[in-house]
Amino acid sequence: TDWVAAAAAVRRWLPDGRILLVCHVNPDGDALGSMLGFAHGLRRLGARNLQATFPGPFDVPEPLREVPGVDRLVPETEAWAEPDLLVTFDAASTDRLGALASRLSTARDSVVLDHHASNPGFGAVRLVDPAAAATSVVVEQLLDRLDVPLDAEIAECLYTALTTDTGSFRFAATTPAVHQMAARLVATGIHPGEISQRVFDSRPLGAVKLFGEVLGRCELDPAAAAGHGLCWTTATLADLEKHGQRPHVLEALIDSVRCVAEADVCVVLKQVGEDTWSVSMRSKGAVDVSRVAGLLGGGGHRAAAGFTGSGSPADVLASIRSELDESVIR
Ligand code: 5GP
Ligand code: MN
Ligand code: MN
Known about the structure:
The protein is an alpha/beta fold and about 325 residues long. The chain has helices at about 1-10, 30-45, 105, 135-145, 150-165, 175-185, 190-200, 205-215, 235-240, 255, 290-295, 315-325, and strands at about 20-25, 50-55, 85-90, 110-115, 125-130, 220-225, 230-235, 265-275, 275-285, 300, 305-310. The chain has 2 domains: about 1-200, Alpha-Beta Complex (inorganic pyrophosphatase (n-terminal core)); about 205-325, Diaminopimelate Epimerase, Chain A, domain 1. A hairpin with a 2-residue loop joins strand 8 and strand 9. The radius of gyration is 20 Å and the shape is globular. The protein binds guanosine-5'-monophosphate and manganese (II) ion (2 copies).
């Protein structure tokens, strides 16, 4: 099976092979936590040539700076051109790997660890479990297959990942198995309260004020998708500049828009260039937002998806609205 092939691919390059770990652009807690948890696991197995990196700007969001191993990340420009083994984390498609997608053809072996249903299937060995709440679930299982016992350093990484993608154990994918995994992680002695505080409940005053301004512009269409409500707002580069904030603070914004009771679908348009928008979508269940995102060049999960849109905010919103009716889950 894939588990056997994945474990064999990893063992084949231990201890001296050059192992390159890559997670998706603009890494979130699952991307970084899964990757760094696996990196610690590989070191326990004796890996001596290990790089962990991600594409795009080499800027780790503040809430993730204390994940163990962040200090040893390398920028993509330093990543080996021809690694022996490439392992990818939480990347739903090759474009999420940016320029590092080239390593899929230059590496001698590749293993893809992911949990997105929209993953089209890339890499030589694919461990993609759409039922998994986070990529870290897949990573924990693979570490187990590799006979790596959990320790606090690994657990800190995997817990950060698991709590991020389950929205602090609130989302629908929060199964008994998720809580059992959390229990194994917490049993290593990590402090969930401190991790949660850093991941969810900590942002600069400027970001809070920025959120206030952007949330103040929320609009609601109570019947945008076959009777289901749509709520959206837009955060511009000017908003970021005004409040002295960097783009990644906006990642948490969708969680506040998601609270709007009248809306089944929530959308945040985050400006990344003159006419370019990074779009986050969330659904409370009535609509499959991964379908919408997929049709517009992105991907994700039924309840959480995204894509890059171009044109004016009105153009991007119109493209979303035109797919909503067809994306209602019947
Ligand atoms: P977020 O809104 O938190 O950035 O992303 C939500 C989900 O959508 C994540 O699972 C992420 O993988 C997916 N996603 C966001 N943006 C993109 C994109 O541009 N392309 C693809 N394929 N998936 C995306
Ligand atoms: Mn992710
Ligand atoms: Mn994930």
